[in-house]
Design brief:
Elements: H1 11-17, H2 20-38, H3 48-72, H4 77-86, H5 92-103, H6 109-134, H7 139-143
Helix pairs in contact: 3-4, 3-6, 4-6, 5-6
Length: 154
């Protein structure tokens, strides 16, 4: 069940009666609508510099962190770049955390809106970074079943 419905009194009934794939594909959209309704765009023009800085840091930290983790587990350099680029868009947990913080009164509406915009921008950067990273893979591994190679010498 989506986090957005986890505290409703009907959660037990919904969990039993809603098939999981149908429920997640249908109900999770309400979660994102709720995020959008909580945002305020009036504060964003004052925080453009902060939003750009946070977006760059979010992209770089996910790229390096996930790419380095992949390299530590034996993926070669090119495959590690692809994994790092592919993980840039993973912002849904950040959205959930921001929404919980906003609802708990820890985040102001302005900060909450800035976080959501950063997550959206990082998600939009991900396909561009992934496209560039995929160009680093050898052509035969891009078209075959095995897209990633592991360095067995480690």
């Amino acid at each position: 069940m989506p986090v957005s419905l986890s505290r409703t009194p009907l959660i037990a009934k919904l969990s039993k009666r809603t098939p999981n794939p149908l429920g997640t594909q249908f109900l999770f959209h309400y979660f994102f609508v709720g995020i959008g309704l909580s945002m305020s765009f009036t504060y964003l023009t004052q925080a453009i510099g902060l939003i750009v800085t946070m977006t760059v840091l979010a992209c770089i930290s996910k790229f390096i962190g996930c790419g380095f983790g992949a390299a530590l587990t034996g993926f070669n350099r090119q495959s590690s770049f692809v994994i790092g680029a592919g993980m840039i868009s993973r912002g849904e947990m950040g959205m959930i955390t921001a929404q919980i913080g906003y609802q708990a009164g820890v985040l102001s509406r302005a900060s909450y809106s800035e976080f959501v915009v950063v997550i959206i921008l990082a998600t939009m950067v991900a396909p561009l970074a992934l496209k560039q990273a995929l160009k680093l893979l050898p052509k035969d591994s891009r078209q075959g079943e095995r897209s990633f190679t592991v360095d067995a010498s480690k």
